[in-house]
Design brief:
Helices cover 89% and strands 0% of the residues. It is mainly alpha-helical.
Length: 62
């Protein structure tokens, strides 16, 4: 995800993100961690869905 994407989600200008990174590094760090967490949750959900499909197709074969 680009900074432009993140800024759009947050409803701020890209410059604001850059300013946070420079002037408010702790805030910027927390915002970035939030996006990383969201990405990890999405990836876990996708992995779960793939595993569930495998399990379902395996159960149908028995």
């Amino acid at each position: 995800m680009t900074q432009r994407d993140m800024a759009g989600i947050l409803g701020v200008d890209v410059k604001t993100l850059r300013n946070w990174r420079k002037d408010k590094p702790e805030l910027y760090k927390k915002v970035m961690q939030g996006f990383q967490f969201e990405q990890a949750v999405q990836e876990a959900k996708e992995q779960y869905e793939r595993l569930k499909k495998l399990a379902d197709s395996s159960n149908k074969q028995h």
